[in-house]
Amino acid sequence: MHDYEYKLLSYLKDHKFVSLNELATNLNLNIDSIRWSLEDLKKNRYIEVHESTDLVYKVSDEGKRDIDEGFPEIKLIELLESKGGKLELKVLDNKLGLVWAKKNGWIDITDGYAILNDNGKNALNNTYLQFSLLKTILDGNSKTEKLNESILVDLLKRKLIETKKSMHIDNISITNLGLEQLKSQKKEQKINNLTKEILLTKAWKDKKFEEYDINLKVPENYPALRHPMNEFLNFIRYKMLSMGFSETYGSIVESSFWVFDSLFSPQDHPTRDMQDTFFLSNPNKLDIDDKKLFESVKKMHLRNWKGTWKESIAEQPVLRTHTTSVSAHSIYSCRDSDFSNPIKLFTIDKAFRNESIDYKHLAELYQLDGIIIGKDLNMANLIKVLKDLYGSMNLDIKIQPSYFPFVEPGLEIQYFDKSHNDWIEMGGGGIIRKEITAAMGLNGATVLAWGLGLDRMLLSKANLDNLSDLYKNNIGWLKSRTDLNLE
After folding, report:
1. pLDDT reading at 145 higher than 50
2. Where in the chain is the domain with CATH 1.10.10.10?
């Protein structure tokens, strides 16, 4: 028997019915220690714990707001009184107060006016009582027997308060079995915590140690962890940096020029329509400052696509549909380099697409975009980089030919998701077309490029049924999620 339990039984032997606070005061123990001891003694039927349940009230979030700001109907009635009892509806901002005042029969609405009636003039006293009671509950005086029942009903209807049950211990008493156990139990001081003093004085030699049950369940420990998405993005970032790449950044809001035109996507391409792209109305256009580049890209389109090309379409602002727009900026900024050593750049950030939502599609996604600019580069170099990256994540991938407007030749990367028994597209890549590099003044250099969706990789890594689960902030899942097995 633990020393705390012995103390409790000894005290209860001499006192018939004892409260929790009395035990804490007279035994000089904290409440948690007493509660722990009581549970063990109760389980062994050494004591009887007499409990009761109270129905108490707590103020809801809406009620707290009304306490801070005042009841909307009180504010409305007071305003109407100050304006002679009549006010035009169009000048009233207090719509919620208007609803409640009308529902309570305090106002009449006639010819676009709110008119205070006799019921409204007499209603303030009762409403003030509601407000006062609400504040009383917030201050902690929430036992039902002390509260006005009719006003409570009104507050409950308005969902300004909520009910909850409160269990508490009335008294504790020792049983006959507890008295017998106390007689047979010889009080003996045991060590339950080794301290520096005990070790230095060797006091442990004359003492016994408390026994510990190693089979007892202990509370779950939830150490601080990054969100799985952030953990994964940081892992990808680390991998890219370790492969010799430098990180670049760009704007989420871009002109269609950088998202589409600079990357050789024709202005009538399906990816530009409202099914895939979020077009913005404010600002209504984004100017391209570099007029020389603007003209160069325009000539590229007219020469190769043989159609019309409108500056107004190129200046349309959009939420970028891919982070390749950042790569386009990077390619242009490197036009004066000598490329004696390859330039390796990457971007990890959000992209946005107006897609139908399913288990592997959302309206926004994280994308990894990478480019290598240098001389004498080929597809074998690109495939080697992609295999190294995916291989570091233990993902089963396949690479196959594909078409994308801004690369030639192009490839597509897929990985096999075992939980869905499905090959899932991760993105595409290839060699940036000569038309693009020429328009951007990058003569004599080859650009390898790829763009990969990162969210989808977590379907397998985080054992998800649906990508939307990543953003639901499910605390239970965040606490108990399995390791992402990144290495």
Report:
1. no
2. 3-52+167-209
Q: Supply φ then ψ for residue 46, to 5 degrees.
A: -85, -20
Longest Cα–Cα distance of the chain, Å, equals 104
Domain spanning 229-480, CATH class: alpha beta
One DSSP character per residue, 301-316 reads HHHHH-S---HHHHT-
Could you read off the pLDDT of 56-69 as tens digits, one per residue? Answer: 777 777 777 777 77
pTM above 0.70, yes or no: no
Which residues face 416 on adjacent strands?
Answer: 423
SS3 215: coil
Is the pLDDT at 407 greater than 70? The verdict is yes
- Residue range 214-219: mean pLDDT, rounded: 73
Contact by Cβ (8 Å): 254, 286:
yes
Burial, 457: exposed, middle or buried (Cβ in 10 Å; 0-12, 13-18, 19+)?
buried
3-class SS letters over 138-189: HCCCCEHHHCCHHHHHHHHHCCCEEEEEEEEEEEEEECHHHHHHHHHCCCCC
Q: Give the Cα separation of 368 and 362 in Å (integer).
A: 16
Length of the chain: 487
Nearest to 155 by CA among 135, 139, 177: 135
1.10.10.10, 3.40.50.1820, 1.10.490.10, 3.30.530.20: CATH of 3-52+167-209: 1.10.10.10
User: Higher confidence at residue 154 or residue 350?
Assistant: 350
> At a CB cut-off of 8 Å and minimum separation 6, what does 8 contact?
23, 27, 34, 37, 38, 41, 47
Q: Say if residue 332's pLDDT is above 90.
A: yes
Using a pLDDT cut of 70, give the percent of the chain over it: 90
| Residue entry with tokens 């139990």 | 185
